[in-house]
Amino acid sequence: MATASSACPPPRWPRRIDVSTHTDPTAGIKPARRIVVRSIRASPRPAHLRRPTMTISTSLLRLAAAASAATALLVACGGGGGSTTEAPTASPLSYKLQTYITDNLATEYSKVWVTIKKITAVDGAGTEVTLLDASASPVSVNLSSLADVGQFMSTVTLPAGVYAQIKVTLGNAVQLVSLDGSKTLSARFNSTGADQVLTLRDLDLNPANTGQLVLDFNLAKFSYDATTGIVTAVVERRDAGEAFGKFIRQQAEVHGSVTAVNTTAGSFTVNDSRLGSVVVTLAADATIVNEQTQAKLTLADLAVGANVEVKGKVTPGATTADPATVTASVVHVLPAGSTGDGTATLPRLRGAGTVTAVSGSLITVSLTDANFLPSSNSVVVDVSSARFAHGQASDVTVGATVRFAGKAAGTGTTQITATVFDLDGASSNPGKGEKYNPGVIGKVASITSTTSFTVTVTAANTNVPAGTYTVDASKAEFESGSSSCLVVGAQVKLRGTLSGTTLTATRIEIAGCGGQKHSSPGRG
User: Fold this and answer.
1) Confidence of residue 484 (pLDDT cuts 50, 70, 90)
2) Average pLDDT over the chain, rounded to whole?
3) What segment(s) does the record annotate as region Disordered (predicted)?
4) Cβ neighbourhood burial of 7 (10 Å; 0-12, 13-18, 19+)
5) 3-class DSSP state for residue 300?
6) Which one is the CATH code of 435-510: 3.40.190.10, 3.30.230.80, 2.40.50.140, 2.60.40.10?
7) Closest by CA position to 351, among listed 363, 331, 338, 365
8) Are 378 and 415 in contact (CB under 8 A)?
9) What are the residues whose beta carbons fall under 8 Å from the beta carbon of 418, sequence distance 6 or more?
10) Where is average pLDDT lowest: 151-165, 309-323, 336-350?
């Protein structure tokens, strides 16, 4: 076979780029970068190596976005001597990219509520590639709740390429809550009423080198003009490794159809339109609730094809090509075809927060999380006809952390009739003599193992009598930090059931303990 002419330029192999973005509330603006494209000699690969995907996660005021990769075609070159060697064709490489958002602590407002509609990446030719499209059902986020937290927003498959810009589209409305929670200001990003597009330029986004894009809504750099009511927002790209090193946890909201159920492993798999395939693992004492009938189900009752909604802590896969795992304490089974947000005329409202008042079946909740922009700091939730996923009405006390789902009682979103109410950390089936405790705060006094230790508390910093308490953490979930942070002297907050001086913990928070693992780049 004749060889190609030496005068012919070498074949141009397809180029690939791996991109991952993360957001970190503490990072400042970094020097501008451009995306690097590397040529890679392609060879036939299994199908699973040719599927690029991206995942997006969000955290307080920081947003991480992913870039897309452009495909280069290999062109045959004609040589001398009347014969040519045809260059082999190759499939373009692609990678999965995960997107997270995060934020730093706000200094002037206790809560900053925004809606995220879309995140796109722009290549050198000006073509936009979608990383997240929530235009039909915008994602409401309290950016202040994302301090040192990474929220997983999406996973997409991108062809290799160079991306110089990321665009983040926000709804125009902004809700600002004062530090003491007494006032809520309805602000906006611009005076036109149009969506606000924030653009990050001169990026160096390569999905082959990093599997996550972290976007940081840097609240410390937000500004508010009281005269015009205009908020000026800032979003920055955060180094993924640095961001994950400071995260106390990663979280995600999963909504989609069940594709597999594993009763032996206590898990099921969900196909989420934004996050891709997600494995949901049931926490100890997890509850599955059918919102339409209010019946409690077992995992064996959960059928393939069921429409579910879950929110929980994320454990990333080894690579971005591997599914993430979300640990859930409550699984909501919704009507077939439901978006989880109800309809325009009868929206399904869901949220979470801290109880500030209890009056019979009416519970006032200071919101920290919701699928709507709250018009005030608190909502009143009527639990008279609600199914309690954990705990019972008599367990609800001021200071308790709760979650709810239901419908508005009248106009607006300040009064909600709950169909499902969850007392976080309580038992789904309390035993005799057990009493729910919304938060024992103290210092670790001694450690027998990561599931058995003692805590010393004082009357000044907790809601139980001063003394030493034995903690059974065999079924507990670390809400922040991990078991490696459990050392003598560490300050902890525990939720669970108390019997005498023994606390059976269901939730553990360890102060000042960051550092979460993230996925390596994976091919689509």
Assistant:
1) confident
2) 81
3) 1-25
4) exposed
5) helix
6) 2.40.50.140
7) 365
8) no
9) 381, 382, 383, 385, 386, 404, 405, 406
10) 336-350
Would you kindly state where each structural domain of the chain is located, as residue ranges?
15-246, 250-334, 348-423, 435-510
Residue in 226, 218, 219, 216 with CA at minimum distance from that of residue 187? 226
- Residue 221 carries which side chain, given as an amino acid letter? K
* List of residues 6+ apart from 465 with CB closer than 8 A: 459
- Between CA 249 and CA 480 the distance in angstroms is 6
Question: Exposed/middle/buried for 293, CB within 10 Å: 0-12, 13-18, 19+?
Answer: exposed
Which of 57, 62, 33, 103 has its CA nearest to residue 215? 62
Bridge partner residues of 21 (DSSP): 99, 213
pLDDT band for position 364 (cuts 50, 70, 90) = very high
Task: Provide the 3-class DSSP secondary structure of residue 485.
Answer: helix
The CATH number assigned to the domain with range 348-423 reads 2.40.50
Structure confidence by residue, pLDDT tens digits, 185-204: 999 999 999 999 999 998 87
Question: Exposed/middle/buried for 52, CB within 10 Å: 0-12, 13-18, 19+?
Answer: buried
Q: Rounded to whole angstroms, how far apart are CA atoms 480 and 515?
A: 10
**The overall pTM is greater than 0.90:** no
Instruction: Measure the CA–CA gap between 295 and 487, rounded to whole angstroms.
Output: 41
Q: How confident is the model at residue 68 (pLDDT cuts 50, 70, 90)?
A: very low
Which of helix, strand or coil describes residue 478? strand
- DSSP-derived 3-state class of residue 484: helix
Q: What is the DSSP string of 178-192?
A: ETTSS-EEEEES-SS
Lowest mean pLDDT among 66-70, 97-101, 121-125, 509-513: 66-70
- Residue 344 CB burial class (10 angstroms; 0-12, 13-18, ≥19): exposed
pLDDT above 90 (res 234): yes
Identify the H or E element spanning 1: none
Architecture of the CATH domain 250-334: Beta Barrel (2.40)
Reduced to 3 states (helix: H, G, I; strand: E, B; else coil), residue 76 is coil
Instruction: Decide if 250-334 and 435-510 have a common fold.
Output: yes
What number of other Cβ atoms are within 10 A of residue 468's Cβ? 12
Position 28 confidence tier, pLDDT thresholds 50, 70, 90 = very low
331 touches 280 (CB < 8 A): yes
Would you state the structure tokens that stand for residue 468, as one six-digit string? 């030493």
Contact indicator for 12, 34 with CB cutoff of 8 Å: no
Q: What is the pLDDT of residue 124?
A: 77
Q: Is 68 within 8 Å of 121 (Cβ atoms)?
A: yes
Phi, psi of 316 (to 5 degrees): -65, 155
CB 391 within 8 A of CB 360: no
- pLDDT band for 15, please (50, 70, 90 cuts): very low
Distance CA 194, CA 240 (A): 31
